[in-house]
Design brief:
Layout: E1 5-10, E2 14-23, E3 26-36, H1 42-48, E4 56-60, E5 66-72, H2 77-95, E6 99-105, E7 116-124, H3 125-136, E8 142-147, H4 148-159, E9 167-173, E10 178-184, E11 187-194, H5 199-209, H6 213-223, H7 237-268, E12 277-281, H8 290-298, E13 302-304, H9 318-326, H10 332-342, H11 354-452, E14 457-466, E15 481-489, H12 495-508, E16 518-519, E17 532-538
Parallel strand pairs: 1-4, 4-8, 9-12, 12-13
Antiparallel strand pairs: 1-2, 2-3, 5-7, 6-7, 9-10, 10-11, 14-15, 15-17, 16-17
Length: 542
Protein backbone atom coordinates (compact mmCIF):
# COMPACT_ATOMS: atom_id res chain seq x y z
CA UNK A 1 0.00 0.00 0.00
CA UNK A 2 1.03 3.62 -0.61
CA UNK A 3 2.06 5.75 2.36
CA UNK A 4 -0.30 8.55 1.37
CA UNK A 5 -3.28 9.05 -0.92
CA UNK A 6 -4.96 11.98 -2.60
CA UNK A 7 -8.76 12.10 -2.83
CA UNK A 8 -10.97 14.34 -4.96
CA UNK A 9 -14.68 14.82 -4.25
CA UNK A 10 -16.29 16.85 -7.02
CA UNK A 11 -19.58 18.22 -5.73
CA UNK A 12 -21.95 20.49 -7.60
CA UNK A 13 -21.00 23.50 -5.46
CA UNK A 14 -17.43 22.71 -4.35
CA UNK A 15 -14.41 20.60 -5.09
CA UNK A 16 -12.76 18.97 -2.09
CA UNK A 17 -9.16 17.75 -2.29
CA UNK A 18 -7.64 15.88 0.63
CA UNK A 19 -4.25 14.22 1.10
CA UNK A 20 -3.92 11.80 4.02
CA UNK A 21 -1.66 9.09 5.36
CA UNK A 22 -2.39 6.16 7.67
CA UNK A 23 0.08 4.97 10.28
CA UNK A 24 0.18 3.16 13.59
CA UNK A 25 -1.07 6.34 15.31
CA UNK A 26 -4.11 6.64 13.05
CA UNK A 27 -5.05 8.97 10.20
CA UNK A 28 -3.01 12.09 9.51
CA UNK A 29 -4.40 14.76 7.17
CA UNK A 30 -1.55 16.34 5.20
CA UNK A 31 -3.34 18.73 2.82
CA UNK A 32 -6.87 19.99 2.26
CA UNK A 33 -8.43 22.34 -0.23
CA UNK A 34 -12.11 23.16 -0.53
CA UNK A 35 -12.84 25.41 -3.45
CA UNK A 36 -16.17 26.61 -4.83
CA UNK A 37 -17.05 25.52 -8.33
CA UNK A 38 -19.81 26.16 -10.80
CA UNK A 39 -21.23 23.74 -13.30
CA UNK A 40 -18.22 23.74 -15.64
CA UNK A 41 -15.29 25.15 -13.72
CA UNK A 42 -14.01 22.05 -11.86
CA UNK A 43 -10.58 22.16 -13.56
CA UNK A 44 -10.19 25.78 -12.53
CA UNK A 45 -11.05 24.94 -8.93
CA UNK A 46 -8.68 21.99 -8.88
CA UNK A 47 -5.80 24.03 -10.30
CA UNK A 48 -6.33 26.70 -7.65
CA UNK A 49 -5.73 24.15 -4.93
CA UNK A 50 -2.00 23.85 -5.70
CA UNK A 51 -2.04 20.17 -4.67
CA UNK A 52 -0.42 17.48 -6.89
CA UNK A 53 -3.18 15.38 -8.41
CA UNK A 54 -1.28 12.39 -9.76
CA UNK A 55 -3.07 9.08 -9.13
CA UNK A 56 -6.03 10.49 -7.21
CA UNK A 57 -9.06 8.62 -5.94
CA UNK A 58 -12.20 10.25 -7.29
CA UNK A 59 -15.63 9.90 -5.71
CA UNK A 60 -18.76 8.76 -7.57
CA UNK A 61 -22.27 9.82 -6.63
CA UNK A 62 -25.76 10.38 -8.00
CA UNK A 63 -26.47 9.50 -11.61
CA UNK A 64 -22.81 8.85 -12.40
CA UNK A 65 -23.10 5.48 -10.71
CA UNK A 66 -25.53 2.63 -10.04
CA UNK A 67 -25.48 0.20 -7.13
CA UNK A 68 -26.99 -3.27 -7.45
CA UNK A 69 -27.26 -6.21 -5.09
CA UNK A 70 -26.97 -9.88 -6.05
CA UNK A 71 -27.40 -12.89 -3.84
CA UNK A 72 -25.34 -15.92 -4.82
CA UNK A 73 -24.48 -19.19 -3.11
CA UNK A 74 -21.01 -19.30 -1.54
CA UNK A 75 -18.66 -19.76 -4.48
CA UNK A 76 -14.90 -19.63 -5.09
CA UNK A 77 -13.45 -16.26 -6.05
CA UNK A 78 -12.87 -17.24 -9.69
CA UNK A 79 -16.46 -18.43 -10.11
CA UNK A 80 -17.84 -15.29 -8.45
CA UNK A 81 -15.71 -13.20 -10.79
CA UNK A 82 -17.15 -15.00 -13.80
CA UNK A 83 -20.71 -14.55 -12.52
CA UNK A 84 -20.18 -10.83 -11.99
CA UNK A 85 -18.60 -10.40 -15.42
CA UNK A 86 -21.64 -12.01 -17.04
CA UNK A 87 -23.98 -9.76 -15.07
CA UNK A 88 -21.97 -6.66 -16.02
CA UNK A 89 -22.15 -7.65 -19.69
CA UNK A 90 -25.94 -8.06 -19.46
CA UNK A 91 -26.33 -4.69 -17.76
CA UNK A 92 -24.08 -3.03 -20.36
CA UNK A 93 -26.31 -4.36 -23.15
CA UNK A 94 -29.39 -3.08 -21.36
CA UNK A 95 -27.90 0.36 -20.77
CA UNK A 96 -26.74 0.70 -24.35
CA UNK A 97 -23.24 1.85 -23.40
CA UNK A 98 -19.93 0.59 -22.09
CA UNK A 99 -19.81 0.06 -18.33
CA UNK A 100 -17.02 -0.21 -15.82
CA UNK A 101 -17.69 -1.95 -12.54
CA UNK A 102 -16.35 -3.45 -9.35
CA UNK A 103 -17.92 -5.55 -6.63
CA UNK A 104 -17.39 -6.81 -3.12
CA UNK A 105 -19.18 -9.09 -0.70
CA UNK A 106 -21.20 -7.64 2.16
CA UNK A 107 -20.66 -9.11 5.63
CA UNK A 108 -22.89 -12.13 6.11
CA UNK A 109 -25.69 -11.59 8.63
CA UNK A 110 -27.27 -15.04 8.58
CA UNK A 111 -24.77 -17.89 8.30
CA UNK A 112 -27.59 -20.45 8.00
CA UNK A 113 -29.12 -18.74 4.96
CA UNK A 114 -26.44 -20.21 2.70
CA UNK A 115 -26.17 -17.16 0.43
CA UNK A 116 -23.71 -14.31 0.00
CA UNK A 117 -24.75 -10.78 -0.87
CA UNK A 118 -22.66 -9.01 -3.47
CA UNK A 119 -22.61 -5.22 -3.79
CA UNK A 120 -22.00 -4.32 -7.42
CA UNK A 121 -21.07 -0.75 -8.39
CA UNK A 122 -21.40 0.24 -12.06
CA UNK A 123 -20.63 3.46 -13.89
CA UNK A 124 -20.90 4.41 -17.53
CA UNK A 125 -17.53 4.91 -19.15
CA UNK A 126 -18.67 8.26 -20.52
CA UNK A 127 -19.23 9.51 -16.94
CA UNK A 128 -15.81 8.23 -15.90
CA UNK A 129 -14.21 9.86 -18.93
CA UNK A 130 -15.85 13.18 -18.06
CA UNK A 131 -14.60 13.12 -14.48
CA UNK A 132 -11.20 11.89 -15.54
CA UNK A 133 -10.96 14.68 -18.10
CA UNK A 134 -11.67 17.27 -15.40
CA UNK A 135 -8.80 15.93 -13.32
CA UNK A 136 -6.54 15.57 -16.35
CA UNK A 137 -7.07 19.22 -17.32
CA UNK A 138 -5.67 20.07 -13.92
CA UNK A 139 -2.48 18.13 -14.74
CA UNK A 140 -3.65 15.15 -12.76
CA UNK A 141 -4.66 11.55 -13.27
CA UNK A 142 -7.25 9.23 -11.74
CA UNK A 143 -6.15 5.90 -10.27
CA UNK A 144 -9.63 4.73 -9.27
CA UNK A 145 -13.24 5.78 -8.82
CA UNK A 146 -14.94 4.90 -5.52
CA UNK A 147 -18.62 5.24 -4.59
CA UNK A 148 -19.14 8.04 -2.10
CA UNK A 149 -21.39 5.86 0.03
CA UNK A 150 -18.66 3.22 0.62
CA UNK A 151 -16.13 6.02 1.17
CA UNK A 152 -18.45 7.43 3.85
CA UNK A 153 -18.56 3.96 5.44
CA UNK A 154 -14.74 3.72 5.43
CA UNK A 155 -14.44 7.14 7.06
CA UNK A 156 -16.81 5.94 9.76
CA UNK A 157 -14.83 2.71 10.31
CA UNK A 158 -11.52 4.55 10.55
CA UNK A 159 -12.49 7.70 12.41
CA UNK A 160 -16.10 7.39 13.50
CA UNK A 161 -17.82 6.63 16.82
CA UNK A 162 -18.20 2.88 16.19
CA UNK A 163 -20.22 0.99 18.78
CA UNK A 164 -20.74 -2.75 18.84
CA UNK A 165 -24.12 -3.83 17.41
CA UNK A 166 -25.30 -0.21 17.10
CA UNK A 167 -27.22 0.39 13.86
CA UNK A 168 -26.10 3.70 12.37
CA UNK A 169 -27.30 5.37 9.19
CA UNK A 170 -24.61 7.53 7.55
CA UNK A 171 -26.05 10.14 5.22
CA UNK A 172 -24.03 12.51 3.05
CA UNK A 173 -26.42 15.19 1.77
CA UNK A 174 -25.19 17.17 -1.19
CA UNK A 175 -26.91 19.67 -3.43
CA UNK A 176 -27.89 17.17 -6.16
CA UNK A 177 -26.92 13.83 -4.61
CA UNK A 178 -27.35 11.90 -1.42
CA UNK A 179 -25.12 9.01 -0.32
CA UNK A 180 -26.32 6.64 2.35
CA UNK A 181 -24.83 3.69 4.26
CA UNK A 182 -26.45 1.61 7.00
CA UNK A 183 -23.90 0.07 9.37
CA UNK A 184 -24.34 -2.41 12.19
CA UNK A 185 -21.33 -2.30 14.46
CA UNK A 186 -18.57 -2.49 11.86
CA UNK A 187 -20.61 -4.39 9.24
CA UNK A 188 -21.98 -2.65 6.17
CA UNK A 189 -25.59 -3.74 5.76
CA UNK A 190 -26.74 -1.50 2.94
CA UNK A 191 -25.39 1.26 0.69
CA UNK A 192 -27.32 3.55 -1.61
CA UNK A 193 -26.78 6.56 -3.82
CA UNK A 194 -29.59 8.92 -4.84
CA UNK A 195 -29.75 11.58 -7.50
CA UNK A 196 -31.44 14.04 -5.18
CA UNK A 197 -30.31 16.40 -2.45
CA UNK A 198 -31.08 19.80 -1.06
CA UNK A 199 -31.90 20.95 -4.58
CA UNK A 200 -35.43 19.60 -4.00
CA UNK A 201 -35.79 22.32 -1.37
CA UNK A 202 -34.53 24.97 -3.80
CA UNK A 203 -36.94 23.78 -6.48
CA UNK A 204 -39.86 23.86 -4.04
CA UNK A 205 -38.97 27.42 -2.89
CA UNK A 206 -38.39 28.61 -6.47
CA UNK A 207 -41.78 27.22 -7.50
CA UNK A 208 -43.60 28.72 -4.52
CA UNK A 209 -42.07 32.18 -4.87
CA UNK A 210 -41.54 32.13 -8.62
CA UNK A 211 -37.87 33.04 -8.33
CA UNK A 212 -34.68 31.74 -9.91
CA UNK A 213 -32.85 28.75 -8.55
CA UNK A 214 -30.03 30.93 -7.30
CA UNK A 215 -32.48 33.21 -5.46
CA UNK A 216 -34.29 30.18 -4.05
CA UNK A 217 -30.99 28.83 -2.69
CA UNK A 218 -30.25 32.17 -1.06
CA UNK A 219 -33.71 32.18 0.58
CA UNK A 220 -33.08 28.63 1.82
CA UNK A 221 -29.81 29.59 3.48
CA UNK A 222 -31.16 32.81 5.01
CA UNK A 223 -34.72 31.92 6.07
CA UNK A 224 -35.29 28.15 6.13
CA UNK A 225 -35.82 26.65 9.59
CA UNK A 226 -36.92 23.01 9.63
CA UNK A 227 -36.79 22.61 13.42
CA UNK A 228 -40.23 21.44 14.64
CA UNK A 229 -39.71 23.57 17.77
CA UNK A 230 -39.73 26.70 15.57
CA UNK A 231 -43.28 26.17 14.37
CA UNK A 232 -45.34 29.17 15.29
CA UNK A 233 -42.19 30.99 16.38
CA UNK A 234 -40.44 31.69 13.10
CA UNK A 235 -38.19 34.70 12.87
CA UNK A 236 -40.49 36.30 10.29
CA UNK A 237 -43.47 35.60 8.16
CA UNK A 238 -41.16 35.24 5.17
CA UNK A 239 -39.19 32.55 7.02
CA UNK A 240 -42.41 30.69 7.75
CA UNK A 241 -43.44 30.80 4.10
CA UNK A 242 -40.02 29.55 2.95
CA UNK A 243 -40.09 26.74 5.49
CA UNK A 244 -43.64 25.70 4.59
CA UNK A 245 -42.69 25.71 0.91
CA UNK A 246 -39.64 23.52 1.53
CA UNK A 247 -41.33 21.13 3.98
CA UNK A 248 -42.30 18.69 1.22
CA UNK A 249 -38.75 18.57 -0.06
CA UNK A 250 -37.40 18.03 3.47
CA UNK A 251 -39.83 15.15 3.88
CA UNK A 252 -38.27 13.49 0.81
CA UNK A 253 -34.95 13.35 2.69
CA UNK A 254 -36.46 11.54 5.66
CA UNK A 255 -38.46 9.35 3.27
CA UNK A 256 -35.21 8.35 1.51
CA UNK A 257 -33.73 7.28 4.83
CA UNK A 258 -36.85 5.36 5.82
CA UNK A 259 -37.12 3.62 2.45
CA UNK A 260 -33.44 2.68 2.61
CA UNK A 261 -34.04 1.10 6.00
CA UNK A 262 -36.96 -0.87 4.54
CA UNK A 263 -34.82 -2.08 1.61
CA UNK A 264 -32.10 -3.06 4.09
CA UNK A 265 -34.57 -5.10 6.17
CA UNK A 266 -35.83 -6.93 3.11
CA UNK A 267 -32.33 -7.69 1.86
CA UNK A 268 -30.76 -8.74 5.17
CA UNK A 269 -33.90 -10.53 6.43
CA UNK A 270 -33.58 -8.54 9.67
CA UNK A 271 -37.22 -7.63 10.17
CA UNK A 272 -36.70 -6.04 13.58
CA UNK A 273 -33.87 -3.77 12.44
CA UNK A 274 -34.09 -0.32 14.05
CA UNK A 275 -31.89 2.74 13.68
CA UNK A 276 -29.94 3.68 16.80
CA UNK A 277 -28.48 6.83 15.29
CA UNK A 278 -28.26 8.90 12.12
CA UNK A 279 -25.03 10.76 11.32
CA UNK A 280 -25.24 13.55 8.77
CA UNK A 281 -22.46 14.81 6.53
CA UNK A 282 -22.26 17.00 3.46
CA UNK A 283 -23.23 20.59 2.85
CA UNK A 284 -26.93 19.86 3.41
CA UNK A 285 -26.27 18.52 6.90
CA UNK A 286 -25.96 22.05 8.25
CA UNK A 287 -29.36 23.27 7.09
CA UNK A 288 -31.06 25.03 9.95
CA UNK A 289 -33.34 22.66 11.84
CA UNK A 290 -32.69 19.62 9.59
CA UNK A 291 -31.35 17.43 12.41
CA UNK A 292 -34.34 18.15 14.61
CA UNK A 293 -36.67 17.60 11.66
CA UNK A 294 -35.13 14.17 10.94
CA UNK A 295 -35.03 13.36 14.65
CA UNK A 296 -38.79 13.78 14.83
CA UNK A 297 -39.44 11.93 11.57
CA UNK A 298 -37.11 9.00 12.25
CA UNK A 299 -37.54 8.89 16.04
CA UNK A 300 -33.86 8.36 16.73
CA UNK A 301 -30.85 10.58 17.54
CA UNK A 302 -29.54 12.57 14.57
CA UNK A 303 -26.10 14.18 14.82
CA UNK A 304 -23.42 15.65 12.57
CA UNK A 305 -20.68 13.26 11.43
CA UNK A 306 -17.23 14.72 12.07
CA UNK A 307 -14.52 12.09 11.40
CA UNK A 308 -11.80 14.73 11.71
CA UNK A 309 -12.35 14.80 15.46
CA UNK A 310 -10.37 11.51 15.54
CA UNK A 311 -7.73 12.46 12.93
CA UNK A 312 -4.34 14.11 13.31
CA UNK A 313 -4.50 17.60 11.76
CA UNK A 314 -1.15 18.83 13.01
CA UNK A 315 0.56 18.54 9.62
CA UNK A 316 -1.94 20.80 7.84
CA UNK A 317 -0.70 24.18 6.63
CA UNK A 318 -2.61 27.04 8.32
CA UNK A 319 -4.61 27.92 5.20
CA UNK A 320 -5.60 24.29 4.71
CA UNK A 321 -6.55 23.96 8.36
CA UNK A 322 -8.76 27.04 8.10
CA UNK A 323 -10.52 25.68 5.03
CA UNK A 324 -11.01 22.29 6.65
CA UNK A 325 -12.49 23.87 9.75
CA UNK A 326 -15.10 25.58 7.60
CA UNK A 327 -15.89 22.36 5.64
CA UNK A 328 -15.39 19.57 8.17
CA UNK A 329 -18.70 17.90 7.35
CA UNK A 330 -18.44 18.38 3.59
CA UNK A 331 -14.96 16.74 3.62
CA UNK A 332 -16.04 13.47 5.28
CA UNK A 333 -16.36 11.67 1.94
CA UNK A 334 -12.93 12.89 0.77
CA UNK A 335 -11.38 11.49 3.95
CA UNK A 336 -13.08 8.13 3.34
CA UNK A 337 -11.82 8.07 -0.25
CA UNK A 338 -8.23 8.60 0.93
CA UNK A 339 -8.18 6.13 3.85
CA UNK A 340 -9.89 3.44 1.77
CA UNK A 341 -6.93 3.61 -0.58
CA UNK A 342 -4.45 3.30 2.28
CA UNK A 343 -5.92 0.63 4.54
CA UNK A 344 -6.43 -2.91 3.23
CA UNK A 345 -8.72 -3.77 6.13
CA UNK A 346 -11.40 -1.33 4.95
CA UNK A 347 -14.17 -2.03 2.47
CA UNK A 348 -12.86 -1.90 -1.08
CA UNK A 349 -14.82 -1.11 -4.22
CA UNK A 350 -12.75 0.63 -6.89
CA UNK A 351 -13.98 1.24 -10.42
CA UNK A 352 -10.97 1.70 -12.63
CA UNK A 353 -10.81 3.94 -15.71
CA UNK A 354 -9.91 2.31 -19.00
CA UNK A 355 -6.36 3.72 -19.04
CA UNK A 356 -5.72 2.25 -15.61
CA UNK A 357 -7.26 -1.05 -16.69
CA UNK A 358 -4.95 -1.19 -19.71
CA UNK A 359 -1.98 -0.42 -17.51
CA UNK A 360 -2.99 -3.08 -15.01
CA UNK A 361 -3.67 -5.58 -17.78
CA UNK A 362 -0.23 -4.80 -19.14
CA UNK A 363 1.29 -5.22 -15.70
CA UNK A 364 -0.70 -8.35 -14.86
CA UNK A 365 -0.53 -10.03 -18.25
CA UNK A 366 2.05 -8.56 -20.60
CA UNK A 367 4.64 -7.79 -17.95
CA UNK A 368 4.13 -11.14 -16.31
CA UNK A 369 4.28 -12.82 -19.70
CA UNK A 370 7.53 -10.99 -20.40
CA UNK A 371 8.83 -11.97 -16.98
CA UNK A 372 7.71 -15.54 -17.57
CA UNK A 373 9.38 -15.50 -20.99
CA UNK A 374 12.54 -14.09 -19.47
CA UNK A 375 12.44 -16.77 -16.79
CA UNK A 376 12.00 -19.41 -19.48
CA UNK A 377 15.01 -18.00 -21.34
CA UNK A 378 17.04 -17.94 -18.12
CA UNK A 379 15.99 -21.51 -17.35
CA UNK A 380 16.87 -22.60 -20.88
CA UNK A 381 20.25 -20.88 -20.66
CA UNK A 382 20.90 -22.50 -17.28
CA UNK A 383 19.80 -25.86 -18.67
CA UNK A 384 22.03 -25.31 -21.71
CA UNK A 385 24.99 -24.47 -19.49
CA UNK A 386 24.17 -27.41 -17.24
CA UNK A 387 23.87 -29.75 -20.25
CA UNK A 388 27.05 -28.28 -21.68
CA UNK A 389 28.85 -29.01 -18.44
CA UNK A 390 27.34 -32.49 -18.38
CA UNK A 391 28.46 -33.09 -21.99
CA UNK A 392 31.91 -31.80 -21.14
CA UNK A 393 32.03 -34.07 -18.10
CA UNK A 394 30.85 -37.02 -20.22
CA UNK A 395 33.44 -36.23 -22.89
CA UNK A 396 36.15 -36.03 -20.24
CA UNK A 397 34.94 -39.31 -18.71
CA UNK A 398 34.83 -40.83 -22.20
CA UNK A 399 38.38 -39.62 -22.86
CA UNK A 400 39.53 -41.10 -19.56
CA UNK A 401 37.72 -44.35 -20.40
CA UNK A 402 39.44 -44.41 -23.81
CA UNK A 403 42.79 -43.89 -22.10
CA UNK A 404 42.01 -46.71 -19.68
CA UNK A 405 40.78 -48.93 -22.53
CA UNK A 406 43.91 -48.22 -24.55
CA UNK A 407 46.06 -48.98 -21.53
CA UNK A 408 44.07 -52.18 -20.92
CA UNK A 409 44.40 -53.12 -24.61
CA UNK A 410 48.15 -52.57 -24.44
CA UNK A 411 48.34 -54.76 -21.34
CA UNK A 412 46.15 -57.32 -23.12
CA UNK A 413 48.33 -57.22 -26.22
CA UNK A 414 51.43 -57.61 -24.12
CA UNK A 415 49.78 -60.49 -22.26
CA UNK A 416 48.80 -62.13 -25.55
CA UNK A 417 52.32 -61.64 -26.85
CA UNK A 418 53.72 -63.08 -23.63
CA UNK A 419 51.33 -66.03 -23.85
CA UNK A 420 52.30 -66.66 -27.47
CA UNK A 421 55.99 -66.31 -26.58
CA UNK A 422 55.43 -68.66 -23.66
CA UNK A 423 53.77 -71.15 -25.99
CA UNK A 424 56.70 -70.94 -28.35
CA UNK A 425 59.20 -71.25 -25.52
CA UNK A 426 57.22 -74.13 -24.07
CA UNK A 427 57.20 -75.85 -27.43
CA UNK A 428 60.94 -75.28 -27.66
CA UNK A 429 61.36 -76.62 -24.12
CA UNK A 430 59.20 -79.63 -24.91
CA UNK A 431 61.14 -80.16 -28.10
CA UNK A 432 64.42 -79.81 -26.28
CA UNK A 433 63.06 -82.14 -23.62
CA UNK A 434 62.31 -84.74 -26.26
CA UNK A 435 65.78 -84.25 -27.57
CA UNK A 436 67.72 -83.82 -24.38
CA UNK A 437 66.20 -86.70 -22.43
CA UNK A 438 67.13 -89.39 -25.03
CA UNK A 439 70.55 -87.83 -25.32
CA UNK A 440 70.95 -87.83 -21.58
CA UNK A 441 69.94 -91.47 -21.39
CA UNK A 442 72.22 -92.26 -24.28
CA UNK A 443 75.17 -90.56 -22.58
CA UNK A 444 74.50 -92.45 -19.37
CA UNK A 445 74.40 -95.74 -21.20
CA UNK A 446 77.50 -94.81 -23.22
CA UNK A 447 79.45 -94.00 -20.10
CA UNK A 448 78.34 -97.24 -18.41
CA UNK A 449 79.08 -99.29 -21.48
CA UNK A 450 82.54 -97.77 -21.81
CA UNK A 451 83.15 -98.37 -18.14
CA UNK A 452 81.95 -101.96 -18.14
CA UNK A 453 82.69 -103.20 -21.70
CA UNK A 454 84.99 -106.22 -21.67
CA UNK A 455 87.80 -106.27 -24.19
CA UNK A 456 86.33 -109.32 -25.86
CA UNK A 457 83.29 -107.44 -27.09
CA UNK A 458 82.99 -104.97 -29.88
CA UNK A 459 80.19 -102.40 -29.88
CA UNK A 460 78.67 -101.92 -33.28
CA UNK A 461 75.62 -99.75 -32.48
CA UNK A 462 74.51 -97.39 -29.74
CA UNK A 463 71.05 -95.95 -30.46
CA UNK A 464 68.33 -94.08 -28.47
CA UNK A 465 64.65 -94.08 -29.48
CA UNK A 466 61.19 -93.89 -28.01
CA UNK A 467 59.38 -96.89 -26.84
CA UNK A 468 57.01 -96.62 -29.82
CA UNK A 469 59.79 -96.24 -32.17
CA UNK A 470 59.62 -92.42 -32.50
CA UNK A 471 59.56 -89.41 -30.17
CA UNK A 472 56.01 -88.22 -29.38
CA UNK A 473 56.10 -84.43 -28.75
CA UNK A 474 52.32 -83.86 -28.68
CA UNK A 475 51.48 -86.28 -25.85
CA UNK A 476 51.51 -85.13 -22.30
CA UNK A 477 52.64 -88.66 -21.19
CA UNK A 478 55.83 -89.39 -22.99
CA UNK A 479 56.79 -92.87 -24.21
CA UNK A 480 59.78 -94.49 -22.50
CA UNK A 481 63.23 -93.88 -24.01
CA UNK A 482 64.87 -97.06 -25.29
CA UNK A 483 68.64 -97.22 -25.63
CA UNK A 484 69.89 -100.19 -27.57
CA UNK A 485 73.47 -101.37 -27.49
CA UNK A 486 74.40 -104.04 -30.11
CA UNK A 487 77.73 -105.60 -30.85
CA UNK A 488 79.69 -108.81 -31.35
CA UNK A 489 82.57 -110.59 -29.67
CA UNK A 490 86.04 -110.85 -31.09
CA UNK A 491 86.92 -113.99 -32.99
CA UNK A 492 87.21 -117.07 -30.83
CA UNK A 493 85.42 -115.59 -27.80
CA UNK A 494 82.62 -117.44 -26.10
CA UNK A 495 79.80 -115.01 -26.77
CA UNK A 496 77.28 -116.22 -24.30
CA UNK A 497 79.56 -116.10 -21.29
CA UNK A 498 81.11 -112.73 -22.08
CA UNK A 499 77.82 -111.09 -22.95
CA UNK A 500 76.15 -112.49 -19.87
CA UNK A 501 78.94 -111.23 -17.74
CA UNK A 502 78.76 -107.83 -19.50
CA UNK A 503 75.03 -107.53 -18.87
CA UNK A 504 75.51 -108.48 -15.25
CA UNK A 505 78.07 -105.70 -14.85
CA UNK A 506 75.70 -103.23 -16.40
CA UNK A 507 72.89 -104.24 -14.07
CA UNK A 508 75.22 -103.85 -11.14
CA UNK A 509 76.29 -100.36 -12.27
CA UNK A 510 74.64 -97.84 -9.87
CA UNK A 511 74.30 -95.26 -12.65
CA UNK A 512 72.10 -97.64 -14.57
CA UNK A 513 69.96 -98.78 -11.66
CA UNK A 514 66.81 -97.27 -13.17
CA UNK A 515 67.50 -98.33 -16.76
CA UNK A 516 66.67 -102.03 -16.39
CA UNK A 517 69.24 -103.41 -18.84
CA UNK A 518 68.18 -106.63 -20.46
CA UNK A 519 69.31 -108.99 -23.17
CA UNK A 520 67.07 -108.98 -26.21
CA UNK A 521 67.19 -111.66 -28.85
CA UNK A 522 68.49 -110.61 -32.16
CA UNK A 523 66.03 -110.41 -35.01
CA UNK A 524 66.30 -113.15 -37.55
CA UNK A 525 68.86 -112.38 -40.18
CA UNK A 526 71.07 -110.20 -37.99
CA UNK A 527 73.07 -112.98 -36.24
CA UNK A 528 75.78 -112.66 -38.84
CA UNK A 529 76.09 -108.94 -38.19
CA UNK A 530 75.37 -108.53 -34.51
CA UNK A 531 75.84 -111.30 -32.00
CA UNK A 532 74.22 -109.59 -28.99
CA UNK A 533 71.85 -106.64 -28.12
CA UNK A 534 71.30 -105.03 -24.74
CA UNK A 535 68.28 -102.79 -24.22
CA UNK A 536 68.01 -100.03 -21.66
CA UNK A 537 64.65 -98.45 -20.88
CA UNK A 538 64.25 -94.94 -19.31
CA UNK A 539 60.78 -95.17 -17.76
CA UNK A 540 58.54 -92.08 -18.37
CA UNK A 541 61.12 -90.54 -20.66
CA UNK A 542 63.45 -89.43 -17.90
Amino acid sequence: MANKATAVDLGSHSAKILVASVGKHGVKVLRFAGLPRGDNDAPVALRQADVPLAGVVCGLAGRDMTLRYSQVPPTPDWQLRNLMELEIQDLAQQSGGALSADYNLLPQQDAEAGVDTVLLALAKDEALDRLQDEVKRSNGSVAAFVPNCTALYNAFLKCGPVEADAVVCLVNIGHTTMDLAIVKGTDLLFARNLGTGTKVLDDAIASAFNVSERKAEALKKDLLDLDPQSRGRYASGQAEKVTMAAAGGASSISAAIQSSLSFCKAQTKLADLRLDQVLLAGGGARLRGLRAFLREALRCPVELFDPFANADLSALPPTDAEQLQAMRHEAAVALGLAVGRLDDSLYAIEILPEAVKKRLRFQQRTVWNLVAGLLVVVVLVLQFLHRKNEVKAVEEANQQAKIRINAANKVHDRAVEAIEASKVERAVVEHLTTVVQPMHGLLRVQRAVVANLPPELWIQKLEAKSGSGAASSGSKKRDPIIVEVAGKPLNGVDTSRVVTDFVARLKADPSLADLNPRMDPLPAGQESVERFKVTFELAGGR
